[in-house]
Amino acid sequence: MSDIQHFFRPVNITDYKENQLGHFIAAYADGSDFPELKDVDMAIVGVCEGRRAEGNAGCALAPDSVRNYLYKLYPGSFRPNIADLGNIQPGHDVEDTYYALKSTVEFLIRNNIIPIILGGSQDLTYAQFLGYEKLEQTINIVAVDSIFDLGNPEEDMTSTAYLGKIILHQPNYLFNYSNIGYQTYLVDQASLNMMNRLYFDTYRLGQVRDAIEESEPIIRHADMLSFDISAIKHSDAPANPNASPNGFYSEEACQMMRYAGMNDKLSSIGLYEINPEYDTNGKTSNLAAQMIWCFMDGFYNRKQDFPSRTSSDYVKFHVVLQDEKYEINFFKSRKSDRWWMEIPYPPTKGLKFERHTLLPCSYKDYEMAVNNEIPDRWWQTYQKLA
Known about the structure:
The chain has 11 helices and 14 strands. The chain has helices spanning 62-70, 94-110, 124-130, 163-168, 189-197, 205-210, 215-220, 250-262, 283-299, 363-370, 376-385, and strands at residues 8-9, 25-27, 42-47, 82-88, 114-118, 139-144, 174-182, 201-204, 224-228, 268-272, 314-321, 326-333, 339-342, 358-361. Strand 9, helix 8 (250-262) and strand 10 (268-272) form a beta-alpha-beta unit. Helix 2 crosses helix 3 and helix 8 (250-262) packs parallel to helix 9 (283-299).
């Protein structure tokens, strides 16, 4: 029996055809045993918790709604090795649900299994984060969201007020937070100033949509990803009463999920705030299922790209800029054509942040450096490590 089995309740799986995805998923369904997790790559974790959803009561019903569409997709060129652990039911208190999710995330990551969390409300991101607490490494969070969800750390946590709790959590093992797709008119200027003071990365919706491929290095920096479905425009994903007329298109959401799947270091992902009560003909749940499919497709196309400063698999480019004040080494993978840049790191600081000294970037960052401009990504991280 697994250490986490007692957190879960079996699910009622709908019909699917022999060659569809459901055929390849070992599910904790009514009348079956809890899945054997040996050699499993990913595990679907439903969390039926929405008590702290801000203006979105009913999102706790999302996991089964998404499954209904996910199981009927065809796997394409990959043959998945996936378990569905069933649903974590709401605990007596919300903190009980957080504990169950935290323990599940930690257990799965320790066993090299990626949790695919189907929320539930986005405050579950906090529990997802807590799953890393005992893993003894600093981590990066990337959130695809139209707002920052900072909140007041002194007040109760909600789906729009959990990030402050993460930032102030002790022990502190958050190295960086990146927001993709914030909408300026939905964000308080004081919150934006706070993000800048913390050297966190924030990217406006229009900025990302102008070149969606530039989101790839941001996502490649993540250990965990939290995706709020309301970051997608209402017409493409209506199953959220807080959704904006503006946002990402469904194709862009799927592209970002594929980037997440291809990220060799990403070890957990959460999809939150889907409310079937507001959906139109299952459109949003269907989109969420396709987003998960894209994540799986990316995962099964991982390149095992971990840059080494001495490996012949990487081409090194040395750039000197601003009258020799700064030097940046760039590395380009021969396997994937992806880029990284090196951040100088004082040896006196020990090994705590060493894994963050090779920063994912794009060819555009290299071009900026060649033109004597310091890339924003490099400067933000340099300030943090200085």
